[in-house]
Amino acid sequence: MIVNENFMPLKFNTKKAVNVILFILKSLGGKCDPFRLFAILYAADLKHLASFDSLILDDSYIAMKQGAVPFNVYSMYLQLCHNADTDAEAVALNLKEYFYINEQNLVVSIAPYDDRYISQSEATCLFEAIRENKNESFETLSKTTRNLPWREANKNGEISLLSMAKESGASPELLNYISHSLNEGTAFAGDSAAE
Questions:
Q1: Contact in structure between 193 and 119 (CB atoms under 8 Å)
Q2: How far is residue 64's CA from residue 42's CA, in Å, rounded to a whole number?
């Protein structure tokens, strides 16, 4: 396995992601534009990283033209938007049990979230991020997600977890832990809720 010295593998959990997305959608009246969803996830992850030393979704972020986007959640969104084939089709059909994309390109929930997948600390950070971003314009959301980690993304658009931790104001201990994990090529293991 080739290890990129600036990036580490994260343990993404699709079931948790579905429930976090449903939590956000419920808080926003059941629907949301995709970029607002991505911006809320990014803001919540930065808050949780600074306060609790872990990401909520353990998703990798990528620098896209509009701003930072969670890679796996974005992939889920694309599966909902397009007719997926082969193995991805089964995933897309499963995702459609929870939400769909409407004519206005909004993500719409059709199922309740399972709170067993969301810890109290995660819910607090999600609520704060929702409150701060729910009424912001696309331009403002884009500007706030094109921060230092976005500008420091590598040539493949990958945003470094260490850069995100620095941006969040994480503790020196966490910064050292992430740096050490990067050097070892080990996965970042925060204290997430049930998987």
A1: yes
A2: 13
User: Residue for token digits 């620095």?
Assistant: 166
Task: Enumerate the domain spans of the chain.
Answer: 14-184
Give the whole-angstrom CA distance, residue 130 versus residue 145: 14
User: pLDDT tens digits, residue range 100-125?
Assistant: 999 999 999 999 999 999 999 999 99
What is the distance between the alpha carbons of residues 161 and 81, in angstroms, rounded to a whole number? Answer: 28
Q: What is the pLDDT of residues 168-185, one digit of tens each?
A: 999 899 899 888 887 766
Residue 85 pLDDT greater than 90, yes or no: no
Q: How far apart are CA 160 and CA 88, in angstroms?
A: 27
- The DSSP annotation for 47-61 comes to HHHHHHSS-SS-PPE
Which of 134, 113, 80, 133 shows the shortest CA–CA distance to 193?
113
Q: Please check whether residue 57 is in contact with residue 16, taking contact to mean a CB–CB distance below 8 angstroms.
A: yes
Q: What is the pTM of this model?
A: 0.85
For tokens 């992850």, the residue is 45
Task: Indicate the average pLDDT of the chain.
Answer: 86
Sheet with 31-32, edge to edge strand ranges = 31-32, 107-109, 99-101
Instruction: Say which DSSP state 26 is in.
Output: H
Which letter does DSSP use for residue 63 in this model? E
How many CA atoms lie within 13 Å of 130's alpha carbon, on the beta-carbon side?
19
